[in-house]
TrEMBL record:
Domain of life: Eukaryota
Localization in the cell: Mitochondrion inner membrane
Keyword annotations of the record: Membrane, Mitochondrion, Mitochondrion inner membrane, Transmembrane, Transmembrane helix
Species this protein is from: Artemia franciscana (Brine shrimp)
InterPro entries per the UniProt record, alphabetical: Tmem186, TMEM70/TMEM186/TMEM223
Listed name of the protein: Transmembrane protein 186
């Protein structure tokens, strides 16, 4: 369990299996300052179409990491038995280190990827659903006035991804308009400013 950042409310996730696919339901965590989050009070404004594929990649990344880490002791034991020579052992170690580095970079990218954004009925809070390093969903509530407008960022709207930053520098996420879908244009403009 991670510590709560003052002024932000986190939501705990529970998973249920439905027809061999996992559907995600959220239950709010209580924050003593803000009380419970009313999840019915939010309207979706953005959806990343391929969030399930990104989640699957995050989960597969974990298994690949395990296999990569397990390969080094296996090849080392084969080397001590004389079945594998030293150059093959060093090749496996180098390839494993490079693979682990790439898996770490991919995990960090997936951690910052936004799947859904919701705005509450009052227009004051933005609920951001993003992936964790392990491929789970985490919802974070951010005040709308803390979100940096898109026009203040160096990113172009035609880029593959656009950064979503906060003025308090607590969060730095990524979303895409090329592969994502804006569900409510007016609310999206209220949060991110002029989007054309």
């Amino acid at each position: 369990m991670m510590s709560l950042v003052p002024g932000y409310t986190y939501c705990r996730l529970s998973y249920t299996v439905k027809h061999a696919l996992r559907s995600i339901s959220t239950t709010p965590l209580l924050n003593k300052k803000q009380g419970a989050v009313d999840l019915d009070n939010y309207t979706p404004i953005y959806k990343f179409k391929y969030i399930r594929a990104a989640r699957l990649l995050c989960r597969l990344k974990l298994y690949q990491t395990g296999l990569t880490i397990a390969s080094i002791p296996l090849v080392n034991s084969l080397s001590t038995q004389g079945l594998v020579n030293e150059s093959e052992l060093s090749n496996v170690v180098v390839i494993s280190v490079i693979a682990l580095g790439m898996l770490g970079v991919m995990g960090e990218l997936c951690r910052k990827l936004i799947g859904f954004m919701y705005i509450d009925k009052s227009g004051e809070n933005l609920r951001v659903a993003h992936l964790t390093f392990f491929g789970n969903r985490r919802d974070i509530i951010i005040p709308v006035n803390d979100v940096v407008l898109v026009e203040e960022l160096p990113d172009e709207l035609t880029d593959i991804y656009i950064r979503m930053r906060t003025y308090s520098n607590k969060y730095n996420f990524l979303f895409t308009l090329r592969f994502g879908e804006v569900l409510d244009v007016e609310s999206f403009k209220k949060v991110f400013g002029k989007v054309s």
